[in-house]
Design brief:
The protein is of the alpha/beta class. Helices cover about 30% and strands about 15% of the residues. The protein is built from 9 helices and 12 strands. The strands form 2 sheets. An 8-stranded mixed sheet has the order 1-2-6-3-5-4-7-8, with helices on both faces. Strands 9-12-10-11 form a 4-stranded parallel sheet, with helices on one face. It binds threonylcarbamoyladenylate (TXA) and magnesium ion.
Length: about 300
Amino acid sequence: MPFDTVFLDLKSNKPIGMPTETVYGLAANALSNEAVSRIYELKKRPIFNPLIIHVTDISQAEKYVIFTDDAKKLADVFWPGPLTFVLNKKKNCPISDLASAGLETLAIRSPNHNLAQKILKSIDFPLAAPSANISESISPTKAEHVSSAFPNLTILDGGPCTQGLESTILDLSGKTPSILRPGTITSEKISNILGKDINKVQNKSKTIKSPGQLKRHYAPSIPVRLNAIDIKKGEILLSFGHHNIKTENELNLSVKGNLREAAANLFSYLRQLDSGLHKSIAVMPIPKTGLGIAINDRLTRASF
Ligand code: TXA
Ligand code: MG
């Protein structure tokens, strides 16, 4: 898709499909209520669930949020990259209130993808971009995943996403940094840079700070059985590493047992398994350490 169409659409407040290193985004002008409302409408997303704002770098972010010392330390290391900060908005912040669902805080990140950066550098507004899928369904990691959900959308094809899981969301608006959504930038990496402990993700909280923490999310249309050590009739196996489960119905997230590879394959494999040929999915145990925490988080939400 030529860049001209992308810019024309963005300037006329139409959302576009934008590649990032994590998942494809449904991106539109974050300063425009009209553009942002179209994102919610297309995604069928409840308007109480705020969006992530995408910027080129720290200096653009500082126009909209109070960038704390912790945010600076982390952005110096991880931006552009899959780390989103929740920070307090600046006074008179021009971002559409609809994008932040009326909250005093804003979720913001700089994506590490050359095409996303190219777009952001060529426009004079930031982009609100949730994952480019219908609300609750599996996030898109290839351009064709986006076009199957939104056939009329202008989509910039940037190839398969290298990370495959949505960014880590870190709340820096309170006293102690808290992970709201685990991702490839793990709590260990964050603690190391900050030189202090941080709160790890808590799914049990009744008041949902990040509505993306809603239980059911990233869900295929068929049941998902977790921590499977065998396979039952009608099931297809989503395996990990070497194993002794005998079946011909199998997709292996990473034969070598590599968590990075598994993360990059996860959503695309869940889609393949959800293609209508099988009744349910059995998922082998994935180690619950490092990046495995984010993978297990997405699988758990897929299983409700
Ligand atoms: O990797 C990503 O982050 C992708 C790509 C496209 O950048 N985007 C993405 O957006 O995953 P989305 O809309 O699917 O997830 C945004 C999450 C939601 O869980 C939302 O509730 C949370 O960010 N969020 C947004 N603003 C927030 C805020 N002010 N406070 C707490 N959570 C917030
Ligand atoms: Mg999403």
